[in-house]
Amino acid sequence: MTAETAQTAPVTVRAARTSDVRAMRELIEPYVRRRILLGKELVTLFEAVQEFVVAERDGEIVGCGALHVLWEDLGEVRTIAVAEGVMGLGVGHRMLDALEQRALDLGLSRLFCLTFETEFFGRHGYVEVAEQVVSPEIFGELLRSIDGGVHEFLDLAHVKPNTLGNTRMLKRL
């Protein structure tokens, strides 16, 4: 995609399909190499494809992001990645808006993220949180999850190397 096309072609945000997974992984990999996102195995992306939206421009996947439900009122925004050629053009904002709408459609009232991109999320109403955002009873239930992202949300010791430097942020919808 040329720079001119990137500036003028419309972006469509839609639910991800299995045929998008390899392109999603390619988008995510540069962020993994820079230690901004955790790496995901291809099988993990296929298993979670229903959680993802993609941004598409001229038939090319230029962004992806996921919404993972943690509890009845709480979800996590995960794995937002945008192609370098469209950074600064609002692609990430459009995907986050779509993920927030999905959260509302599911009945969620709070969204969590663990991020280095505090300015981006701050512009969308997310605020830093230091305290635990769930009750001790729900914390105990979430401990039973096998999902590594849930363990990051809970700030468990065994995931600390993956979360160093990240900021915990929360938004009330």
UniProtKB/TrEMBL annotation:
Listed Pfam families: Acetyltransf_1
Q: Does the keyword Secreted apply?
A: no
| Domain N-acetyltransferase, residue spans | 11-147
Task: Supply the PROSITE patterns for this chain.
Answer: GNAT
The protein's matches in CDD domains, at most eight in alphabetical order, are given as: NAT_SF (cd04301)
Q: Where does the source fall among the domains of life?
A: Bacteria
Among InterPro entries, the record links this protein to: Acyl_CoA_acyltransferase, GNAT_dom, NH2A_AcTrfase
- Keywords assigned by UniProt, alphabetized: Acyltransferase, Transferase
Annotated NCBIfam families: PRK07922.1
Protein name, entry field: N-acetylglutamate synthase
Lineage of the source organism?
A: Bacteria, Bacillati, Actinomycetota, Actinomycetes, Micrococcales
